[in-house]
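Re: the request from the purification team.
They wanted to know what the chain is likely to look like in 3D before they choose a buffer screen. I agreed to run a prediction and write the result into the notebook, where they can find it.
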Amino acid sequence: MSMQLNVRIVTLPAMRVASFYGYGAEPEMMAHQKLAAWAGPRGLLQPNSGRLVFGFNNPSPSSGSPNYGYEFWMTLDADEDPGEGIDVKQFDGGLYAVTRCVGTQIIGEVWERLAAWRNGTHYRFGNHQWLEEHIDVWNDDQFVLDLFLPIVG
C-alpha cells in the first residue's frame, strides 16, 4: 500500500484527562470498557460531547509475550470532578505530526510510514507522549484514528 500520507502539524494544548488502563492480551478492549462504564452514565459518549479521546500503548508489545498495556485518556473540563477512583492526569501538550488511519489492520504500517515521513523533514522526534486520537470512537462501523507523532521543530 503506497498511498500518500496527508500529514498536518498540530500543537496540542495542555489538558486534564481521566485515564483508563488495561493490561493483557487485548488491553484496548479492557481500557475501553472502563472508559465506557465511566463516560456512559455521564452522557459523554455522544459524538458531540466535545470530549477528545486519546490512547496509547503503555507498555508497548514486546516479543515473547502476548501481554501489553493500553491507556485511554478522555479530556476533562478544568474544574470537573471525575469522581471516586478515577485517575486524573495533567498532559503538558506539545507539537505533533498527525495523519489519519482508517481500519485496525493498518495501524502499525501507518505509524511506520508517519515516522518515515519525519525523516524527510527538519523535525526531530519529541519526547512527549505518542498518541492515537480515537475519532468517532463510539461508531463500531468504522474505526478511525488520528495518529499523533511527537516532534520538535
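For the purification team: The CA atoms of residues 62 and 96 lie 25 Å apart.
Please add any questions underneath this entry.
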